[in-house]
Amino acid sequence: MEKMWAGRFAKALDKEADDFNSSIHFDCKMYKQDITGSMKHAAMLAMQGIISQDDCDEIVDGLQTILDDLNSGKLQFDPDAEDIHMFVESELTARIGDVGKRLHTARSRNDQVALDIRLYLRDETNEIIELIKNLLSAILVQAKANKSTIMPGYTHLQRAQPITFAHQILAYAMMFTRDIDRLKDALKRMNYCPLGSCALSGTTYNTDRDFVAEQLGFDGITLNSIDGVSDRDFCVELLSAYSTVMMHLSRFSEEIILWSSWEFKFIELDDSYTTGSSIMPQKKNPDMAELVRGKTGRVYGDLVTMLTALKGLPLAYNKDMQEDKECIFDAIETVKKCLKVFAPMIETMNVLADNMYSAAQKGFINATDLADYLTKKGMPFRSAYKIVGQIVAECISKGIVLDTMPIEDYRKHSELFDEDLYNEISLETCVEKRISAGGTGKASVEKQIEYISEFIDKN
Q1: 3-state SS assignment for residue 150
Q2: With the C-alpha atoms ordered 287, 293, 297, 299, is the resulting torsion angle positive or negative?
Q3: Cα angle at 153 between 376 and 377, to 5 degrees?
Q4: For an engineered disulfide with 246, which of 103, 296, 386, 417 has Cβ 3.0 to 4.6 Å away?
Q5: Which is nearest to 459 in space by CA: 182, 190, 72?
Q6: Parallel, antiparallel, or unpaired: how do β-strands 158-164 and 150-155 relate?
């Protein structure tokens, strides 16, 4: 295939160099966006009298047939094409003749690719947002079913205080709401149209960039043509946001892996989201969660690739910027695959409430409540803290827990202790009296569930 830029050159491009230079094998993903952008560009050229309306109609019809044929599989991408832009333009010219050569008037591949990647990322990121909302819905299913399921809360992976399972997983829901906000915020800054910037300095034609921007659903145009073709900040922002999504998924995965182990046995994953061992017949491995945890590093790597590719680039466009696509395409596919398997894995997991409650009864996680009991009777908290620490040490030496220590032994430490302390330090009381906003008490958890439900509806 003859290159569109062949006129300047006396020799053909070396085959190895041609393959090295080509991006058709990955930027073909953007064919829909490329064709859509070209249709709107042609419409603008006709509106401004730069090409005739007849030529515009023929171009748009030709582009539509190419789109239809690519969608149906009738037309295959040419591996010898340099990129998706040249492929579409060559195919259009082959179908409608010289009229097709008018399409590239008043634009460059520099602003064309800047447009395509923005359109593609907008579409894909909106799909990721919907997938995160599906995960939020799955979390809500479990939260609503486990508002009274008591488990030990942890700090330093040590049993700390009693909480509900609903409260625990709603913490992840809050993370994912922020992920959606981050993605939408990045999309907002990205949503400006670069088409019409041309190679870097604009064009001598009387174009209407605002018309194209409006037709393509942008909020406006990029105001500096050099920045319009060389900006990839939005790729960095989105990759950072994708990485944060993966970090949250990875943290959640780690807990699922722990909870499903025999050492915890807080949950059991559905058979559909686990695998077995080739040699150990008893095994039920949380492979999906482990893969999500593993793939997180891959998306981090994509972010670093993008930052590194951009770090030393002079203005305006440089061929290095071709490297933006493979890393961000990989990140998008990875995040989507992880979210698609994660939501149903969460929704279908079986919560083993009795095991959670049994674990919560151990580890003295009601010790803070015992200190609060003394504080409410007038003892300074630090004094109460010290006494309760001594009581815990005594319980450990005797092999008992706070709930079973006799009242006579309590009174050896303070006359403020009375029979009512046993109710005060029961797990149910410890959870329910956490009345502060955002806490593990039932009223607070209900508000958190309501917030997530409304967030899903609004977004």
Answers
A1: strand
A2: positive
A3: 5
A4: 296
A5: 182
A6: antiparallel
Give me the tens of pLDDT residue by residue for the chain, a chain 459 residues long: 555 545 555 566 667 776 777 789 999 999 999 999 999 999 999 999 999 999 999 999 999 999 999 999 999 999 999 999 999 999 999 999 999 999 999 999 999 999 999 999 999 999 999 999 999 999 999 999 999 999 999 999 999 999 999 999 999 999 999 999 999 999 999 999 999 999 999 999 999 999 999 999 999 999 999 999 999 999 999 999 999 999 999 999 999 999 999 999 999 999 999 998 788 888 899 999 999 999 999 999 999 999 999 999 999 999 999 999 999 999 999 999 999 999 999 999 999 999 999 999 888 999 999 999 999 999 999 999 999 999 999 999 999 999 999 999 999 999 999 999 999 999 999 999 999 999 999 999 999 999 999 999 999
Rounded CA-CA distance 395/31 in Å is 70
Q: Is 354 buried (19+), middle (13-18) or exposed (0-12) by CB count in 10 A?
A: exposed
| Catalytic member of 156, 278, 397, 436 | 156
CA 325, CA 139: separation in Å to the nearest integer? 32
Cβ neighbours of residue 230 closer than 8 Å, sequence gap 6 or more: 200, 313, 315, 316, 317, 318, 321
Q: What are phi and psi of 50, to 5 degrees?
A: -80, -35
- In the residue annotation, 277 being an active-site residue is answered as yes
From residue 243, give the alpha-carbon distance in Å to each of 19, 256, 325, 432. 31, 20, 16, 36
Chain-centroid distance, C-alpha 452 = 17
Contact 141, 350 (CB under 8 A): no
CB 152 within 8 A of CB 104: no
Q: Which long-range contacts (CB under 8 A, 24 or more apart) does 450-456 make?
A: 452/136, 452/139, 452/140, 452/143, 452/170, 452/173, 452/174, 452/177, 453/140, 455/136, 455/177, 455/180, 456/133, 456/136, 456/137, 456/140
Alpha-carbon Rg for the chain in angstroms:
30
Tokens (6 digits) for 288: 């999906």
SS3 at position 405: coil
Q: For residues 162 and 169, what is the distance between their CA atoms, to the nearest angstrom?
A: 14
Token reading at 398: 């005797």
Q: Which of 201, 261, 272, 277 is catalytic?
A: 277
DSSP type of residue 98? G
Whether 413 is catalytic: no
Fill in the amino acid letter for 158: Q
